[in-house]
């Protein structure tokens, strides 16, 4: 496939977006876990009128004052397309014809299914900016305002007594809360409680680390994102399950550059493959970005991950395990963070997706100054140790 063909595809897809934005005014969610999943009543894929999505986030007990918790809230408010149902079979057929005209026969296999409308719809909505969202957790209420992308971020300070009461009432380390927006738009979210000093936190990338995405290939990325069923990297669900069961107070946090418009489907992927429940920290995709591929490979991807890693490390005294892949900048990002917090990072695991060896110069550069016993390059999850209290074995690959 030529670079010109790829550009044409991306430009025409962008034309669809503009057409949609001109025509529009600009269920339930798949279960999360335990009793909390029964409280959810939103499905981001149905997209009827105004909706609100709450991303699973975290609450930290203050490292300086154990009487205080800081509860992080992250959500998205938007209005769905009330215009014609152009995003139907006609759009799918048009895109498929477009692909066949531009790709050679051997490449069509990557686009051999129908465009999945469930994955396209969250991208064709109007963000609700400057709207007040009322957050209620326990007996405490706080109002947050949406930004230009319709998203809202804030923290609510709560006493340890209030958090412990909620924990006893809900009998879960994931506490539920309620969000109320304009036009009677309500949603239920979840917060993961993070003890400040005891236990290990696993920070995991998603694409090409636990989910097959093939981010480096534009055509395959398009197919894996909007057509094919999400597929787990073989052996990774079992590895994460063993980490959860074999390590005391082990929490999981999914840190990804992928669009948060795909959160609901990604949460389904996590649930269906029995990855441990955890918080999600994705990025919001705006159509000002040139393409999904450029969005994933932009400088802001590294900034996004580094910012969240600093956030986790500065708010706890816990130790951390970082797991990612060699497709993007995970080795370099994790190397930067480990040199800044050498005593806090227990281990780094990098899945080699391009056949690299342990002694590849890129890894030696990325992990310069970090003892080799602390990082491991692997291509089979069975090479990764289960006991996270110990340093990883040195790869012999």
Automatic annotation (TrEMBL):
Superkingdom, natural source: Eukaryota
Coiled coil spans: none
InterPro entries linked to this entry: APP1_cat (IPR019236), Mg2+_PAP (IPR052935)
Signal peptide residue numbers: 1-20
Keywords: Signal
Span of domain Phosphatidate phosphatase APP1 catalytic: 200-351
Example of a GO MF term: phosphatidate phosphatase activity
Any one Pfam family match given in the protein's UniProt record, by short name: APP1_cat
Name of protein: Phosphatidate phosphatase APP1 catalytic domain-containing protein
């Amino acid at each position: 496939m030529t670079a010109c063909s790829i550009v044409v595809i991306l430009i025409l897809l962008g034309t669809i977006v503009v057409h949609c934005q001109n025509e529009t005014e600009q269920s339930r969610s798949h279960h999360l876990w335990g009793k909390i999943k029964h409280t959810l009543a939103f499905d981001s894929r149905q997209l009827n009128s105004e909706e609100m999505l709450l991303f699973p986030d975290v609450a930290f007990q203050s490292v300086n004052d154990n009487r205080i918790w800081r509860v992080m809230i992250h959500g998205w408010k938007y209005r769905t397309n009330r215009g014609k149902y152009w995003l139907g079979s006609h759009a799918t057929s048009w895109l498929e014809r477009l692909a066949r005209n531009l790709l050679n026969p051997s490449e069509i296999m990557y686009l051999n299914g129908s465009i999945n409308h469930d994955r396209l719809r969250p991208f064709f909505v109007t963000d609700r900016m400057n709207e007040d969202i009322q957050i209620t957790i326990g007996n405490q209420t706080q109002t947050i305002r949406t930004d230009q992308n319709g998203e809202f971020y804030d923290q609510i300070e709560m006493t340890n007594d209030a958090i412990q009461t909620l924990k006893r009432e809900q009998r879960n380390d994931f506490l539920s809360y309620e969000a109320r927006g304009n036009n009677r738009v309500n949603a239920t979210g979840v917060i993961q409680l993070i003890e400040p000093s005891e236990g290990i936190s696993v920070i995991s990338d998603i694409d090409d680390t636990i989910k097959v995405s093939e981010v480096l290939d534009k055509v395959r990325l398009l197919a894996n994102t909007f057509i094919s069923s999400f597929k787990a990297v073989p052996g990774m669900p079992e590895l994460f399950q063993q980490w959860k069961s074999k390590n005391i107070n082990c929490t999981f946090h999914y840190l990804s550059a992928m669009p948060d418009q795909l959160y609901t489907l990604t949460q389904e992927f996590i649930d269906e493959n029995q990855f441990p429940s955890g918080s999600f920290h994705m990025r919001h995709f705006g159509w000002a970005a040139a393409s999904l591929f450029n969005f994933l490979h932009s400088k802001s991807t590294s900034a996004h991950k580094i910012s969240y890693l600093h956030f986790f490390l500065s708010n706890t005294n816990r130790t951390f395990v970082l797991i990612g892949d060699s497709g993007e900048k995970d080795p370099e990002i994790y190397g930067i963070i480990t040199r800044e917090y050498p005593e806090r990072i227990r281990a780094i695991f990098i899945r080699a997706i391009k056949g690299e060896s342990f002694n590849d110069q890129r890894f030696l550069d990325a992990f310069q100054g970090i003892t080799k016993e602390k990082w491991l390059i692997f291509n089979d999850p069975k090479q990764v140790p289960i006991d996270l209290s110990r340093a990883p074995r040195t790869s012999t690959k």
